[in-house]
Amino acid sequence: MDHIVIIGNGISGVTAARHIRKLSDTETSSAQAKKITIVSAETDYFFSRTALMYVYMGHMKFEHTQPYENWFWKKNKINLKKGYVKTVETTSKTLQFANGDTLQYDKLIIATGSKPNKFGWPGQDLKGVMGMYHKQDLDNLEKYAPNNKVCKHAVIVGGGLIGIELAEMLHSRHIPVTFLVREHSFWDAVLPKGESAMINREILKNGIDLRLGVNLKEIKAYENGQVKSVIIEETGEEIDCNVVGLTAGVSPNIDFLKESENQTEPGRSIETGRGVKVNRFLETNIPDVYAIGDCAEQHEGIDQRRPIEAVWYTGRMMGETVAQTICGNRIAYKPGHWFNSAKFFDIEYQTYGWVWAQPKENEARFYWEHHKGNKCIHINYDKNTREFIGINNLGIRMRHEFFDKVLTEKRSVDYVLEHLADANFDPEFYKLHEPEIVAKFNQENHTNIQLKKKSWKRIFQTS
Fold first, then answer.
1. Do 145 and 127 form a contact (C-beta atoms < 8 A)?
2. Are 218 and 230 within 8 A, CB to CB?
3. Residues 175, 151: contact at Cβ < 8 Å?
4. What is the strand order of the sheet 216-221 is part of?
5. Helix (H) or strand (E) holding 212
6. C-beta neighbour count of 217 within 10 angstroms
7. Looking at CB atoms within 10 Å, which of 11, 115, 310, 413 has the fewest?
8. pLDDT for 19-67, tens place per residue?
9. Digit-coded pLDDT (tens) for 124-163
10. pLDDT of amino acid 462
C-alpha cells in the first residue's frame, strides 16, 4: 500500500488528500488503496484561510471556518500528524521533524503555501508585528489588538489584498489605522487607473489614514520588545502604534527545502527557485515528489499567468489534478481562463480574462463608472479583431459561467455588450446599469450595439 504524505493542510493539500481517497477507494478504480498522511504545524484540522478575517470581525467563530467535522478524517482514513518538517531526505524517502520524529513516504506532495514577505526591516520580528496568513496571526491579533484601548493605533505595511482585509478587520473594532502603500495608487501594479482610484476613495471613506508612495524604514520597540512606532523612509516621520501588519506580498514557504539541500546527495535535491519547480504535471525533478498550491512554481507560466499563483481556486485545482496523477491517470494542470475576486470594504471586485494595469499594443479599453463613484466596469478587447479579452467589474456582480464561455468561444466585445444583462448576477431588485453602459460605449466608439430583447426584459422587470 503506497503511503502518500502531504506537507501542508491548506486547500491544496486537503483537496489532494480527499480526491486521492475518493479515487483509490472506488470499486471501479484501477488505483490501489492508499495510506494518506497530512502533516501540518499550524492547526490540528483544515480551516478556510480566507475566512479568518470574519472570525476577528465577529461574523463567525473559528470552528465555523472548518468545513469538515473532526470525525471526517478518521472516517475517510486520512491520518493527521502535527509537526514541523525540518528536512526532506529524498534518497531514503524520509521526512525529518524538528522534534526528532521521522516519517517514511512512497510519494510526497509539498503543499506548504506562503509566508509573508519580510525585507530585513529593523524590528520586523518584534512583539506585535504580524502578517495575516495563518491561524497564529489571528491569535496574535487577538492578543495585541483586542480593542482600541489595548491597541490605540495600528500600521499596515503593503497595499495588496491582505493589507486591505487587515485594515477592514481593525476598522471593525474602531482601531485607528495608518496604511503605508509603496505604490502611488492602491494596487496600481494590478488595477488600471480608474479602478485603483476608486479603491483609494473607498479606503479614505472608511476613515483609514492612507499614505501613498511611502516605504517603511524601521519598527521601533519599547524595552520589553513590543512595538512602539514605525519610521517612514521618505520623511523620517515617526508614527506611534501598538501593532504592525506586514502585508507586502507573500513568498513560497519552502525554507525547509533549502535546509534539506545541505543534507542531500548531489543530484537528489528538490529543485527550487522562488518556489518548488514543477512541470505541467506538478512533478518536481525528483521522482515521486510533487508540489501544489502557493509554493509551486511552473518553469514557465501557463498562458499569461505567473509561474507562481497564490490564489485559492488554483490551489484547489492543483490538488484535484495531482490526485488523478497519483491514482494512475496522469494529467496536466490546466487552470483555464484567469479569474479572481476580492472585496475592498464595501466594494466587491471580480475579474475575468485579462485587464492589465496598462493596455498592451493590440488592446483597446472601454471604461464606465457610475456617477456615485462606487461602481465600474472596464472591458478590454483586441482593437483589430474586436475579440473580447477581459473585464474588471467593481460594485457589480457578474456570472463566471458567462465570461468563461465567452472567452472559450472567443466572442467579440460587441457580443458581450449585447448580452451584458445576461451576465449580471446582482441580487433581485438591484438597479441594473446595462442601458447606460451600452449607450456610453456606442457614443465613444460610434457603434449601434443593442441589448438583446431578453436582456431588456430582465432590466425592466428588476429596475
1. no
2. yes
3. yes
4. 216-221, 227-232, 238-240
5. strand 209-212
6. 18
7. 115
8. 999 998 764 455 578 999 999 998 889 999 889 999 999 999 999 999 9
9. 999 999 999 889 999 999 999 999 999 999 999 998 899 9
10. 44
